[in-house]
Amino acid sequence: xxxxxxxxxxxxxxxxxxxxxxxxxxxxxxxxxxSKIIERIINFGDEHAYKWLWKVYSEETIRSEVKSNKNxxxxxxxxxxxxxxxxxxxxxxxxxxxxxF
Length: 101
Known about the structure:
The chain is an all-alpha fold. The chain contains five helices and no strands.
């Protein structure tokens, strides 16, 4: 992503300050912190935040995060499994929390 587009996207992130209540949002790096950004927006974002997420990150990046992030809300994970066509058994946060022997 070119630097001017990156600055624009980061500026747009400021609109979602409430989602990042415990973070200095100005210090967030869209590439370095993409896992936490995607997690927070999936868990706490509204439709505007979701639209921003899809503008900034590729569907494959979001899909990968949905599959591998254990902190994603289960309801959001079910919804995104349907939207992105991900088999639910591939989403780690939807797997049973207990250990099987």
